[in-house]
Amino acid sequence: MARRYYMDFFEKLGETISTKSKDVAKKAKEVAEVVSLNAKISTQEDIIKKTYAQIGQKYYEKYKEDSFNEFGAEFDSINHAMEEIKRLQDEIQTIKNTKICPKCQEEVPTDSAFCSKCGAQFEAESQESEKAPQEDRNNDKVSEEEQPEVNDDVII
Ligand SMILES: [Zn+2]
């Protein structure tokens, strides 16, 4: 009797274990399938997000000059961020003592006369800054000469 009892017991135990391990395997497979499907959903969501951004960028490029656009506030936000990026990039250039080639965007030493990548010739900045103020001064002189008729110091 006792022997029979143990046999039944172990048979039942064996059945329980195999059922349990089948359940575990089934669960693991389900989890793996769900993980895989969620990854595929993420991929599609990324495509949507990227495409939304592309539409937004195209729209911005098309209507950024339109000052009465319904997305004016968003345009301002983008413009402000772009200006900030430019300012921060300039700061980096100053720290590294480099400048950006206006033709190919290569970073080159500030004092270089040519771009090392595309060969573009840079206008000497010192000449530019000397020329411009002189022209301004001449313009100021002309306007000053035209003005003397009006003299606020003389009170009649
Ligand atoms: Zn260049």
From TrEMBL:
Extent of Acidic residues compositional bias: 145-156
Gene3D superfamilies noted in UniProt: 4.10.1060.50
Biased composition (Basic and acidic residues): 128-144
Region (Disordered): 124-156
Pfam families (alphabetical): Zn_Ribbon_1
Residue ranges of every copy of the Zinc-ribbon domain listed in the record: 101-121
Superkingdom of the source species: Bacteria
Protein name: Zinc-ribbon domain-containing protein
